[in-house]
Amino acid sequence: MRISRSTLDDVKERFEMKMKEKLQKKNEYDIEEKMKELKEEEEKLKEYRKQKRKEKRQQQQQQKKSNDQDDGDDQMASMMGFASFGSTSKKK
Length: 92
What we know:
Elements: H1 8-80
């Protein structure tokens, strides 16, 4: 058995092949890592949206409670015979 000697071209070819394999493995890892990061980001976004909706509902409930109290005052005033005191500004 004789072993052939490697030429410069053989070594360069082998080196390029190893570099391609290394890059391919890195790309696969990067894809998996990026997918994981995307899922985490989506979860954070969902949680943020959920929190915003919850805050918005609380604000609407507070406004509804304050509007109910204002409506009671307006009804009392109309029962007493006066709807307003002649002001031109309107209540919100």
